[in-house]
Write a structure and sequence with these properties.
The protein is mainly α. It contains 13 helices and no strands. GO terms for molecular function: ABC-type transporter activity.
Length: 257
């Protein structure tokens, strides 16, 4: 409770760090903040051309099938890789001013989460124009997004703290996230995985998250309750363990930096 109270007292600093991240992401570019919408829109155009005209994946409107799964994955991968170097990248600030160090990875994940919310505007527009549309099950989407946010935040706490002591971690994460992506049913459906391997795939925390996004946005059905239960368990487990690990490791940050 003391930690939450301290975070609340520094809420303005957290807000400023998130705003700084959003402002500097496209600083100096002509379109500026509009790239938040243009980038996913251009990706969608590429997917549409490739999978509609060149590669026939055998899935109706495969470009949408892929797009609705890539959006939550990009948020997760960005949160993981960007948070790894976040503490080291702010070492001068950490050495000079006292503030809850945990604010730094939170600001990184919050910035990525805001970007995902903006991208959802493009997703909804694509669903409508593609003819798939949107129905009442969309009310479950904010729940899944918040649970994914908690899961990503818990992992961000862990990797940002560990990277202070093991600097190679941020480079290894690039390989891990690439392998993790191919081990998650993003480019393919879970039904394509051999039955004997499906229990292993279900141990992947991102599998139920991707399946829930796809159920809501592509299939327009209620997400599987067992999937939602798994997402809840993974999210609670990682946010608690991540917080405890960060709090323990942050004690020697100044010496290590």
């Amino acid at each position: 409770m003391e930690g939450l109270k301290e975070l609340y007292n520094y809420r303005e600093m957290l807000s400023n760090l998130v705003k700084k991240d959003l402002r500097t992401r496209y600083k100096g570019s002509v379109l500026g903040f509009l790239w938040t919408f243009v980038n996913p829109l251009l990706q969608l155009v590429v997917y549409t051309m490739v999978f509609s005209l060149i590669m026939r994946a055998g899935v109706d409107k495969y470009y949408i099938y892929l797009f609705v799964a890539l959006v939550p994955w990009i948020f997760f991968a960005t949160s993981l890789t960007s948070s790894a170097s976040s503490i080291i990248g702010n070492k001068d600030l950490i050495k000079k001013v006292y503030f809850p160090r945990i604010i730094i990875p939170i600001s990184v994940v919050n910035g990525a989460f805001m970007n995902m919310i903006f991208t959802m505007v493009v997703v909804f527009a694509a669903l409508i124009f593609s003819g798939i549309g949107i129905n009442g099950y969309i009310i479950f989407l904010p729940i899944i997004m918040i649970l994914e946010y908690l899961f990503a935040l818990g992992l961000a706490f862990i990797v940002s703290a560990l990277n202070v002591y093991f600097r190679d971690l941020e480079h290894i994460l690039g390989i891990i996230t690439m392998a993790w992506m191919y081990g998650t049913p993003i480019l393919y459906g879970i039904d394509m995985v051999p039955e004997q391997l499906q229990p292993i795939f279900n141990l992947n925390p991102m599998t139920p998250i991707i399946l829930a996004f796809r159920d809501i946005l592509y299939y327009k059905t209620m997400p599987n309750l067992s999937h939602m239960g798994l997402i809840l368990l993974w999210s609670i487990g990682f946010i608690i363990s991540g917080y405890l690990i960060f709090q323990k490791l942050q004690r020697n940050f100044v010496e290590e930096l």
